[in-house]
Amino acid sequence: MSKPPHTHPDRRPAPGTTAAPTTTDLAPAPATASPRAARPAPPVLALTHATVLLTPHSRPLPDHTLLLTDGRITATGPSSQLKPPPHARVVDLTGKYVVPGLTESHIHTLGDEALTAPLFPLTGITSVREMWGQPFHHAWRRRISSGTLLGPRFVIASPILDGPPSIWADDLGLPVLEVADAQAARAAVRKVHREGADFVKVYSRLSPEAYYAIADEAKRLRIPFAGHCPDILPMSRAATSGQRSIEHLHAMLLATSSREDEIRRALAEVRIDPTDPSSLSRYGSWFRQVHPLEWQATLSYDKSRARRLFDTLAENGTYVTPTLLVHHSLERIADLPTSSPDWKYLPAWAVASWPAIWEAMTGSRTPEDTARIRRIYEHRLILVSEMHRAGVRLTAGTDTGTGYAVPGFSLHEELRLLSEAGLPAPDVLATATTHPDALLRLPKSRPADLLVLNSDPLHDIRRTRDIHSVVNAGHYLSPADRVRLLADVEKAAAESTPPEEEVLPATATPGCACNAPH
Asked: Which residues lie within the region annotated Disordered (predicted)?
């Protein structure tokens, strides 16, 4: 979906904004980070007298102790029975709740490492999936693993693989691999595999021929593929072809319409001008052509057809990342905040650009457009609820990198929106813990990732924001650590200055085609 403005690769990236990709198996190299500016991990850490929730659906274990040895959980038991060894660091968590660390399944990061990388673990997000990888993401991951940078565990996509002409022009300085046929598609998969992508990122304008070649070559090389469902490909075919996850709810809306065949024929007629040098202009053109089809799909929702599709997704183990936050931001503009305490962790110049960007994207809407788009958003919530009831595994992702989204903090808002869609709190928590663990194939033997909360999130999912402390890759970030490190981020944001030049006009906002201006 929408991603933030990018800077040219030979310039300093804009802090707090988004970037692009590059990484073999959805499991990254294990991270054993010793967070910079955090205390070294003791040989044994004892978290005592806490209520422990090992998984979102497990029975809460009151007054329990967790022993971590060299960063890994080695014992769990009632605090009255499990006594820490004399040399352990003991942290009394009486009245606290320990849950798994959270995973953010759809981000786009570009910016100052002093801002972006630390915000994730400091807000309880211990793993992330970067959806448009670039070399610096791999550099960050190496530094996080070596302990010289505080950050989450990264799973990193390839550059986008899209059909020509892509919705993305060359004006952003980001890698897009345009593949027109099966031969080019296979070559692109081999290229990103050699470059170390954790998975192949597929996009909206791929032809069926190119898409199926990507699926076959990815299977041959044993590298997963994930991303958008191409415009003219039935979503059920994406599931049966082995796509690991489908991002956003645009294609889902079209695939659950009784007029899907008619809409697919219309989508095949959508054209992007290959001579247009502006990604924003291409985006606008694409969405102006697609928006009426979305409205038709909303009016022609077929519940039985939807259930058949959801059954196919569930049976094939295809995950869906709804990214409700960015849908909400672009489709419920009357609800956009005018301020937030979270914004102080991003540069003021970046935050100040958001209203103008949103005005450029949405200011031309008529009252009828606005009413329709609100109904489309409400329909997206219905789709999420129906998918959940049908057993489709959902993962929480925000498309962080867009305006009105702050790294780390945004995931907690996504969880709230999933709750608004009707998911019970344990199921919402699963979208950020057990489900992405399985999707990303995170190693079970990895160092511990834990989130310590002041109150029970199973009573109200909004309590995931009520953070006491965090265990990030086996390292304990105490309340004092969090206060100090967040203050460092705030200071870095306050001292940030804008890039000398902007690649895009101030009103431009590139992003995924499903969330371009309506």
From this structure: 1-40, 493-518
8-state DSSP, 113: T
Cα(438)–Cα(228) distance, integer angstroms: 19
Model confidence pLDDT, tens digit, residues 390-417: 999 999 999 998 889 999 999 999 999 9
Q: For residue 399, give both structure tokens.
A: 């498309």
Domain ranges of the chain: 102-445
Q: Assign 3-class secondary structure to 258-312.
A: CCHHHHHHHHHCCCCCCCCCCHHHHHHHHHHHHHHHHHHHHHCECHHHHHHHHHH
Strand 97-100 vs strand 450-453: parallel, antiparallel, or unpaired?
antiparallel
Which residues, in sequence order, are CB contacts of 406 under 8 Å at separation 6+? 16, 119, 340, 342, 343, 345, 346, 400
Is-contact 456 463, C-beta < 8 A?
yes
* Cα 208 to chain centroid, rounded: 26
The tokens describing 415, both together, are: 């969880």
Q: Among 467, 380, 385, 402, which Cα is nearest to 125's?
A: 467
Largest CA distance in the chain: 71
Q: What is the pLDDT of residues 271-320, one digit of tens each?
A: 888 888 877 677 767 777 777 888 999 999 999 999 999 999 999 999 99
Question: Which DSSP symbol is given to 363?
Answer: T
Query: How far is residue 18's CA from residue 20's CA, in Å, rounded to a whole number?
Result: 7
CB 344 within 8 A of CB 267: no
In sequence order, the β-bridge partners of residue 257 are: 301
CA 449 from centre of chain: 18
Cβ-contact 408, 120 below 8 angstroms: yes
* Range 102-445 classified under CATH 3.20.20.140: yes
